[in-house]
Design brief:
alpha/beta; 12 strands; 10 helices; binds iron/sulfur cluster; about 325 residues; flat
Length: about 325
């Protein structure tokens, strides 16, 4: 065969870790267990995690997703999503005589607690995050009088604080690590005594998925990120892939959304998925690519993950009570 006209070898670089994080896994299992334990319907305030497929599957099993607590009929159970809620939402549930199950990811709760602590010490808190994102709404609701949202480096110039020597920054858990540090540097330029949080707010899962996509970005002609458009960490993965040197990168919910024209002149395709994406959707993408000659799959591993979180305490309590009753019966 003429070497000049031979088709270049086609391969897939598959990121690891990818997909479900411990917080999403726990939240999805919590809805399933609640449906088994209490029967349908179980109301969930907002999408339990930002993924279309997951939401649709849980709806088919009997979950009802609502935008506002007031939509849940009195006496029912409402579950709060992994993104967390402001204290005012707990009060709304109490007023509506609703039983609650709080599936807020423990790593989001950690940021809530930091906000409460710094507000108690009367700090001005600069919360780096996306205005309007559920997690940011929930965290700022912990201390609305002390928190200012900083939505990227371009917001830094307009930040106002009461005392330049008593300012701390916190962040949303699912941001781009590099962009956040850019914002922090710009904030430090304005407030040299800016305090940093005691530990990373951007969670381990977000960081690991970004590191893996960076490793593959330089080598991949095209990166396909499986995830929904309202999933912050998935959208960040597309940006990180492009920043790392990928020629092209796209976010898709399902394999069917991939456009054949993206493959023109592409020999290496990177594949990853956001923290709210079940593996079955990645398998669909790999199959779609294999049917087009991208059968060779190479793993790009950035980290090992072994973190798991126990189920929300309300569920654990009821599951324990049921197990006890079964033994005594
Ligand atoms: S992405 Fe991070 S903070 Fe969000 S649910 Fe997963 S582990 Fe928790």
């Amino acid at each position: 065969m003429d070497r000049m006209t031979a088709t270049p070898a086609r391969k897939v670089l598959l990121a690891a870790p990818r997909g479900y994080c411990a917080g999403v896994d726990r939240a999805v299992i919590a809805v399933e267990k609640a449906l088994e334990q209490y029967g349908a319907p179980v109301y969930v305030r907002h999408e339990i995690v930002h993924n279309k497929y997951v939401v649709k599957t849980l709806e088919q099993k009997g979950a009802i997703f609502v935008d506002r607590t007031e939509e849940v009929p009195e006496g029912n159970i409402v579950m709060f999503s992994a993104h967390g809620v402001a204290p005012v939402v707990h009060e709304e549930a109490k007023r509506g005589k609703l039983a609650t199950i709080d599936a807020t990811c423990p790593l989001v709760t950690k940021v809530h607690k930091e906000a409460v602590r710094y507000a108690k010490d009367d700090y001005d808190i600069l919360l780096i995050g996306h205005e309007g994102h559920e997690e940011v709404i929930g965290t700022s609701g912990e201390a609305p009088d002390h928190i200012t949202i900083v939505d990227g480096p371009e917001d830094v110039a307009k930040v106002e604080v009461r005392d330049e020597n008593k300012v701390v920054w916190l962040s949303q858990t699912t941001l781009s690590v590099d962009e956040t540090m850019e914002t922090v540097d710009a904030l430090k330029g304005r407030f040299p005594n800016l305090l940093s949080p005691p530990s990373d707010d951007i969670c381990y899962a977000t960081q690991n998925r970004q590191t893996a996509v960076k490793q593959m970005g330089a080598e991949a002609d095209l990166v396909i990120v499986v995830g929904s458009k309202n999933s912050s960490n998935s959208v960040r993965l597309v940006e990180v892939a492009l920043g790392a040197g990928a020629r092209d990168a796209h976010l898709v919910d399902y394999a069917e959304e991939i456009d054949e024209t993206w493959l023109e002149g592409v020999s290496t395709v990177g594949v990853t998925s956001g923290a709210s994406v079940p593996e079955i959707l990645v398998e669909g993408v790999l199959e779609w690519l294999a049917q087009r000659g991208y059968e060779d799959v190479e793993l790009v591993r950035a980290a090992e993950e072994h973190i798991t979180f126990s189920l929300p305490k309300e569920l654990r309590r009821d599951l324990r009570a049921e197990a006890r009753a079964a033994t005594e019966g």
